[in-house]
Amino acid sequence: MKRLLLCVLVFQLVGCAELQQVVNQLPQGTTGIGNDQIAQGLREALNMGIEKQVEKLTSENGFYRNELVKILLPEELQKVDKTLRDVGLSSLADEGLRIINRAAEDAVGEATPIFVDAVKGITFNDAKQILLGNDNAATQYLQRATKTQLYNKFNPIIKNSFQKVGADQIWSNIITKYNSLPLTNDVNPDLTDYTTNEALEGVYTMIAVEEKEIRTKVSSRTTDLLKKVFALQD
Fold it and tell me: What is the pLDDT of residues 12-37, one digit of tens each?
């Protein structure tokens, strides 16, 4: 335990060059790991989490049946949903919700190459900050590095997905029916933008789940490198 505390203090107090000098001077077996291995361990953990969670989200009902990331209607349309159900149009409301989530599933399949490029760019200094950060520090790094690029990638895919499954027409019918009801105010939300942002949040949420597993459960560290690297933050 004292040795692990010493490692943590070293990470916090010295820079990259100084750290390697200190690591070299530590007693044999204190860390058994160098700068490159630490960065590689973080990359390995992120790639594993990305692959696992993207695969889950792109499966059928990957969003719709997952309460952590299920995309609900925007606030503007929640009153539409309630009104439709109140007047006996629940099936129409359900179909509109399923289509939004299916579009997100289509888009997320394009995320992996962008994430992989971001992971390749992790430096030792990035790895040091991530390793000693909070339970979702790696996910936050990915979010900063990829959000704009992923939005630009997801948005046209979701738009095309809506068109492919007829979602644009279905939602047009839903909104038209709602706007024709007495005593309601007309709505016209940008569902493509909304669904794009919700899909992004879903991806980052599930990667954060995987990151926390690796950080807090030794059994989730399935390679020797992961065990060595994440032992430094235990």
Answer: 333 334 334 433 433 334 355 778 88
